[in-house]
Amino acid sequence: MLLSTCVSALGETTVEFFQQKMEEAPQRAYAEAIAKFQEENPDLVIQLNTVPDAGTVLQQRISTGDIPPIFTDYPTQMQFKTKVANGYIECLEGQEWLERVNPGMLALSANTDKAYALPLFQYNFKTEYSFNYTMAFTAYLLSLVPVLVMYCFCQKYIISGLTAGAVKS
Q: pTM value?
């Protein structure tokens, strides 16, 4: 993977983080995480780069060899698999910090038997420095709504099925 970093006369290193999420929550989460990271690492400057139609822009940049060192992508899409096959994305296997990632969450972003990506959805709510419980539990609650609606409409059948197997005739 090519690293597009530049070192200034002040000894700072600038690294681009190219990401595709235009929504406010990811933008805010990334900005907060970057600010806190830079407090601890003042010589490393992370430039957040978000552009419209980021998928197309990323493809064009890769085709010209201008590959951002850190970027977001969608590992379940065919284009991601092509980027892996062509060597544009580094395998994360063997990295010590990868052991601290929840294996279940890591499996959500897997497209091969090796890890090439980290799941971002959780990172919108949790970073190394903070955790937004309100947003996380709101997302979890919203994911339960279809199950609860289904249960309300099918309650009679679910209960009759449970009791049919439990009662001896």
A: 0.54
d(CA 115, CA 121): 16
Tell me the fold of 5-131.
D-Maltodextrin-Binding Protein; domain 2 (3.40.190)
Q: How far apart are CA 52 and CA 141, in angstroms?
A: 30
* Pair of tokens at residue 84: 């892996």
| Identity of the amino acid at 162 | L
Encoded tokens for 102: 């929840």
Tens of pLDDT, residue by residue over 129-165, are 556 677 777 777 777 888 888 888 888 888 888 888 7
H/E stretch holding 108 reads: helix 103-108
Question: For residue 51, which of 15, 16, 95, 91 has the smallest C-alpha distance?
Answer: 16
Three-state DSSP at 163 gives helix
Per-residue pLDDT tens for 10-51?
567 888 888 887 888 778 888 888 888 888 888 888 888 888
